[in-house]
Amino acid sequence: xxxxxxxxxxxxxxxxxxxxxxxxxxxxxxxxxxxxxxxxxxxxxxxxxxxxxxxxxxxxxxxxxxxxxxxxxxxxxxxxxxxxxxxxxxxxxxxxxxxxxxxxxxxxxxxxxxxxxxxxxxxxxxxxxxxxxxxxxxxxxxxxxxxxxxxxxxxxxxxxxxxxxxxxxxxxxxxxxxxxxxxxxxxxxxxxxxxxxxxxxxxxxxxxxxxxxxxxxxxxxxxxxxxxxxxxxxxxxxxxxxxxxxxxxxxxxxxxxxxxxxxxxxxxxx
Length: 270
What we know:
alpha/beta, TIM Barrel, 8-stranded parallel barrel, 11 helices, 40% helix, 13% strand, globular
């Protein structure tokens, strides 16, 4: 597999579906990269998946930089995108450029930020500064308090038009792709047909140029979280739990360590 770059992602629109997943550490990043994923996102979803938080809002730049650095060590071919956490870009253009630059210095090859028309000016400044930007519209988790929860967006004509306008504004500002989250697939289809950059859906239906999911979701590592838009390809929560139970049983009953797991002194003639 050849190295995936920002220009290559843009050229994939209309040619083949783009694949993307999140990763938060070296080992998962290496697995995803060797499996052939196109894009690895170090998402601020680290807050809910790794840190056990109720939302992504408490995640800060220092934490994102740490996770980008360790994920980078496992990535050779995928495009590595770093999420810009809450208040890392909303405060000022200078903060946005500085923090996005820090993510690139940590190993990211592009950054992702949430919002449409309201952040288009920031996107333009970042792109001019040499920082590739992935947009993110629709259900944007950093706006969870504004939305009153994780609710599907664009369900009325006026709200749908607003999201379409957001996509166009981001394209004009220079994004290389746009994540479409939590919206009716008809809206995602219209956006995909309207903009010239790839759309990557999560809970946005079948007509996007690509799809992204959270790695722990597709592996079934959280039995208490099964959203409709996720397909669980494995049940690692159960598999890992069973492996731990077998280990406990083996230790308690003297089956581990076995002969194959121990070392011995060398004999004199060896």
